[in-house]
């Protein structure tokens, strides 16, 4: 036994530390869908850290219920507990102050150019949604001018591809317990490996 522990003890210890940290501190998640385009693409693999503080503009993984089943989603934090969020013609205000959203610039320009018809050429449903949209960010009823106050202890999450994202505009705010962790690193595909902003 002594010989075994001398030869394998360090390996077993490292394996146990990795296993326990995987259980409580981090996990891998796959992006499912196009709601975070172009920041994150469908099928990309991400490293998610649990137990981090949640700030505005962070990309997080959350759990939601859809048709009675739990589903893992990746979205961006727009509103913190108690915030008043308002949009008017694609300008975000948080508690009365304008907040820039540089991660939306690419798709906002394409929306102004041709309502994303070229970008969404792979999906007729997306083209239809974009064609009807009055702005890049609208509420669930299609209004480009809307305001919401985030309840205490909850978070307002939106996808970066606002035209096709199913998020807090439709399903409501998310409780802290529903947020699994913060996306920190893209691990696949290899040509896009690196930190996520």
UniProtKB/TrEMBL annotation:
Pfam families, per database record: Peptidase_S26
Chain ranges of the Peptidase S26 domain: 6-188
MF (Gene Ontology): serine-type endopeptidase activity; signal peptidase activity
Name of the protein: Signal peptidase I
Any one biological process term the GO annotation gives: signal peptide processing
Catalysed transformations (reactions): Cleavage of hydrophobic, N-terminal signal or leader sequences from secreted and periplasmic proteins
Record's keyword annotation contains rRNA-binding: no
GO cellular component: plasma membrane
Compartment list: Cell membrane; Membrane
Top-tier EC class: hydrolase
EC number per UniProt: 3.4.21.89
Membrane topology of the entry: Single-pass type II membrane protein
Gene: spi
UniProt keyword Protease present: yes
Domain of life: Bacteria
Species of provenance: Streptococcus hyointestinalis
Protein family: Belongs to the peptidase S26 family.
Primary localization: membrane
Residues at the catalytic site: 35, 75
Keywords: Hydrolase, Protease
């Amino acid at each position: 036994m002594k010989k075994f522990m001398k030869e394998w003890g360090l390996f077993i210890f490292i394996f146990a530390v990795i296993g326990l940290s995987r259980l409580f501190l981090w996990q891998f998640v796959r992006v499912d869908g196009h709601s975070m385009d172009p920041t994150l693409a469908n099928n990309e693999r991400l490293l998610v850290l649990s137990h981090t503080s949640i700030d505005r503009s962070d990309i997080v993984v959350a759990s939601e219920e859809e048709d009675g089943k739990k589903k893992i989603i990746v979205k961006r934090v727009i509103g913190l507990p108690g915030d008043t969020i308002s949009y008017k013609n694609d300008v975000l205000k948080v508690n009365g102050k304008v907040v820039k959203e540089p991660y939306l610039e690419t798709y906002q320009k394409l929306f102004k150019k041709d309502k994303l018809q070229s970008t969404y050429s792979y999906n007729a449903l997306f083209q239809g949604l974009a064609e009807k949209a009055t702005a890049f960010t609208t509420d669930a009823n299609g209004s480009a001018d809307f305001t919401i106050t985030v309840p205490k202890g909850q978070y307002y999450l939106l996808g970066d591809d606002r035209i096709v994202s199913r998020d807090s505009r439709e399903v409501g705010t998310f409780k802290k317990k529903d947020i699994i962790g913060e996306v920190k690193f893209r691990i696949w595909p290899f040509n896009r490996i690196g930190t996520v902003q």
